[in-house]
Amino acid sequence: MIQMIHVHKTYPNQFFTLSDISLEVSTGEFVFVAGPSGSGKTTIMRLLFCAEKATSGEVIVNGIQITQGFGSIHQLRRTMGVVFQDSKLLQDRSVSENVALSLEVRGQFGKGVRDKVSDALFEVGLQGREKDSIFSLSAGEQQRVAIARALITHPPLLLLDEPTGNLDHQMTTDVMEIFSQLHQKGTTIVLATHNTELLHQYPYRRITLQAGKRVEEEKRPDAVTSGAPDI
Amino acid sequence: MFFLRYFFRRTLQNIRGNLLLNLGTISVIAISMLIFSAFSLIAFNLTSLLKVWEDKIEIIAYLKRRPAPGDLDVLLKNVSLLHGVERAKYISSSEAMSFMETKLGSQRNLLEGVQPDVLPPSLEIQLAKEYRNSVRIKEVVSQLRQFSQIEEIQYGKEWVETFSGLLHVVRVTQWILGGLLIAAMTFIIANTVQLTISSRREEIGVMHLVGASPAFIQVPFYIEGLVQGLLGAQLAIVLLFLLYKLFFIYIPLPVKESLEKVPIAFMPPETIVWFLSGGMVLGFFGSLVASIKILKYSG
Fold first, then answer.
1. pLDDT tens for residues A68-85?
2. Average pLDDT over residues A199-217
3. How far apart are CA A136 and CA A117, in angstroms?
4. Strands (E), chain B
5. How far apart are CA B52 and CA B86, in angstroms?
6. At CB < 8 Å, which residues of chain A contact B?
7. Whole-angstrom distance between the N-terminal and C-terminal Cα of chain B?
8. H helix or E strand, kind and range, residue B102
9. Which of A52, A74, A109 has its CB closest to that of B213?
10. pTM here?
11. Which of A139, A103, A99, A135 is nearest to A120 (CA)?
């Protein structure tokens, strides 16, 4: 589902570079991208959802070569869900309006959307909170709204960049439980984190970065794949 | 249909969310368009007045002597066939005398004892519309000079040249001022829309993130520009109409009396429709310029 082949990323007038990164994520896998702050985790995620272009090398997502001359970024993003550390919710809109946004940009409106929003909120444990304002929610609840917005379109791929970074232990456990369930249903998940506790707690493959280089890959003996077919 | 409803709902929410900024934009558009429309109204009335005068431009060709009846018909026919001549009419010496008496009115006794033969017979030549200007009237005059029966030609050369010059100045000024105001309004609208877009940068970023197409993000801004342009143009028309009415209320009586002979009209309905459409086009164009600059799909 994801392939990065000898990818380099440099920024003008900046010290940081991403050097010769190659990795592969199969359909149905749950993979951690681990490493300390500044190691290049977020850069990899930004390359995968086309917020940036690689300086050299190849990036292939869902069979689409996105490194050079790829025009239809929004079409690519419709094949994935993205969640960040800061939930990136629209503060002036209600919970349901935030979640419905993913469908509205795809031209879906009306009662069908309301039903799907309710289902997505049920999945993240926020049923009945449709009309609440974002301000009235805790950080964990806001992150769940962001997850509902990402999963409402049933994307085959979820990119999660430090999704538990602002959450306490209990909230982290709750949110990780949602991701585990989605993975069991066949969703491919790439989760970037520096939380070592999380890495030890969950039995998924780990790709570790250090100063923009890939230093280690560990496939845990008990690593789990959902068994979904490759796209 | 759902898309349209969504876009209009978003546009209204955007306007409500940035009410002060939008009111500012609409006011600036209204003031700019008021200046333009006021000048257009003056130009419109001046052009109407000039058109009335334009219809009066004609050539008088004085004949050497009274032509024989057969020769007169040939002369009239030949003159009528010239390029630029719409109609030619023979004025005999006695008709010229009667005309003069009518013109003198109560002072007609000044003409007592004067024989009609003193006034030469003439041809009154009306010109085709496109020849009623200082340049093309000369083409007709030079053709008339070829006729041996014609002694002298008068067409109020200085007056025609002044009139043509004035008409030209009014039209050129209208276009230059119009062009400048259009450029200024586009710039103003583009900048204010840019401000509203900047104030919603976070929202636009989230929409990019969830897969919104550039058109999906841009269309509400275009509609916002259309609405701003339409409301601004409407406000300008209303203000202009109030000024037009106030002008007649507050002008001194002697000026008012002299203006009765020169009717001053408000813009005709079709011009108002054009004006409102122009406001919408400007609003749209301003939004387009702003969104091209800001809404590039960078992620």
1. 656 688 888 888 899 888
2. 84
3. 18
4. 58-63, 85-91, 122-127, 150-154
5. 17
6. 46, 49-52, 73-75, 77-78, 82, 88-90, 92, 101-102, 104-107, 109-110, 149
7. 28
8. helix B93-104
9. A74
10. 0.66
11. A99
